[in-house]
């Protein structure tokens, strides 16, 4: 889907709140790329050599002004392209704030030489991540695809730069989808908060409105207006093209020249400038559907193109540190969560300090505490030790950049287009030059109590869910045409062959004497090591009767250190290694190669010897109970609960639910007993990927975890199988929403080990994966009922379910539901067209290697498969099943396992007409 940056950050923040963790995703601009890329400076500062020599990076500027940067990365046979147009909502015409966003949508509606249907078909066949985002100053289009398809991806972008179709008829159809996107965002209280704060901090500037746009402005927007914007700003001399991945730089540049050279440069006006003026302090009160209250303070800050950017970033890291006073409100029991984020736009930025408090409590004491902490920073400066620790962390994270091909492309795009720097090495130099004195001076200059926006986000009730036995009958729809799309010759030649991918070298896979499973995948792309792990748990089965919530409480207490390192001491030890570490049922460790053994020792100490201090237990138990008190009445919780209740039998273990009362009954002895019973090496898997040999990894893990033992035989903790569900309907009111969120769900009788699950995955690709899928075509492109729609199988060891999800205005819910069920029903009765099946096969076969285009993805995929008890080569076994599948086989699988008439419908939001 096409997401504005504010929406990306808002969703991350909302999810964090609902999980009772943190608002670390709060962002004004596009989310920062996951671990940024490498640079010589970062390498020198951290002791790790740069993974990609700067000499290997090829730069060029074409005669028409297009800047090109090609960064090789051999992690996987995959490439990412990002084309950055240096324009966004700042240049929108007066009264039309969403113009840049609307044009972004229309870039997917076809161009000269490649119409919308051809683009959708080709994008699906390539199987990659094909999307875009609009920000205030930059609009980006990115594609991750197999390396062999680089020329095809570049051809798509060249055609779009050379001339969009931009017809009024296409805009009339796309208008409905983009207005559904607006409705979705206006239904989110955090989006409302960000937009209001942005309008205050940047009042009177082009940043006053974010990039999303409004329904009234889209109603007035015409294709002619979009064409004017396109012809004004979408010129090669106003763009930066970044290519990262498994590409030969010289050959890739030759392809770029061949495809883009003929596009003429144009005179491009100067982009609008932003000059932020001081604003008077004020308070915003917002009702929300969140489970907890949030108090937030916001200030203006320098932008990412400012010389003070790195200093402001380090200031944010210092204030947000878990060793600092703001987060200290949490272990003190004064806040459920607290942190600080700095999120810049290119020409100006904002900082937000926030804290969560229990539903029904007052925020004033918390606001006073936050103000006091921030005032102390502004008045007395920052800790020099923390500044150096945060610089070390930032530089270490730069060394992780080439661990993700798309992340590496993103880093270079952020550096060039958003920060105006020449390379990530310049960013590393800026971080290395930051001093404690500069950080303290910046805090004094910007964290001003007289220029502060205070916000109070207060939860409110929306009413109880309403259920019924079923929902209305399906409407009748004519079957959509399924004729093959004729691709241009260059595209057809590029993607004609279907070839199952070759499985990579199998990872080292062993089980230690104590039952712990260790999987090691060496990768010398960077001098870093990533570990992910899990202790397989099923709280619904393992939690003793009457102790609901003990699993969550136990997991939360790992943050409080060990007998060797208390909470702050553990965090300092992690900072000293410039590492990332977390323990509990899910483990993570990221270090530079030389620090891996020391980091692993810290992780093992945390996992095997949690301190479970009594004071922390008392505070955390209270916080968990307070968070639950709000969560259990929140619309999002009630929505998820209604979906579970619709498809699971009464009394199913998965319906067990912790309550404030059950949590407050727990004792520290209950926590320790649960830890002894549930945290066992024979239920644990560790996956290590990176610059390490299997022998080294095994020896280090045996030293750190080899002494861990479990008592008695390995327990059976799987959930029982469930009967097939029947159709019901439920509605969850949400007074904060202007759009309904809809889930259609059912249980299935098939297990993940049944080979037919590959056929179901293939058929679901036809139904709902990408711009050319049936659901996307029918619910968005043809009707404009929705902005996005998805469907997925939820596979478990012992049970499976299937869901279709979308958001729609209340008036569109019934027809969208009927159309979705019609499309699903067609999958059970009629073999898919050969052309559709070929497209789905091409997509899935190309996706298999792309799922291993980052170190994190490699580790996560292996851990996921291990958790399901599946062989690690399952994706490649599946690829052969996809290749061999026939239309009849896919139809028969859907006919056997899917039951459209049994789907339950759960709606959250306004009542249906």
Task: Present the secondary structure layout.
Blueprint: H1 5-18, H2 40-46, E1 58-61, E2 67-72, E3 78-85, H3 99-106, E4 110-111, E5 114-115, H4 116-126, E6 129-134, E7 139-146, H5 150-162, H6 168-186, H7 189-201, H8 215-220, H9 223-233, E8 239-245, H10 249-260, E9 282-288, E10 293-301, H11 309-320, H12 325-328, E11 337-344, E12 349-357, H13 364-380, H14 384-398, H15 405-418, H16 424-433, H17 436-446, E13 453-459, E14 466-468, H18 489-495, E15 508-511, E16 517-522, E17 528-535, H19 539-542, H20 550-556, H21 567-576, E18 580-582, E19 586-592, H22 596-608, H23 614-631, H24 635-647, H25 660-664, H26 668-678, E20 684-690, H27 694-705, E21 729-732, E22 740-748, H28 756-768, H29 774-782, E23 786-795, E24 800-808, H30 810-829, H31 834-850, H32 855-868, H33 874-884, H34 887-897, E25 904-908
Parallel strand pairs: 2-8, 9-13, 16-20, 21-25
Antiparallel strand pairs: 1-2, 3-7, 3-8, 4-5, 6-7, 10-12, 10-13, 11-12, 14-21, 15-16, 17-19, 17-20, 18-19, 22-24, 22-25, 23-24
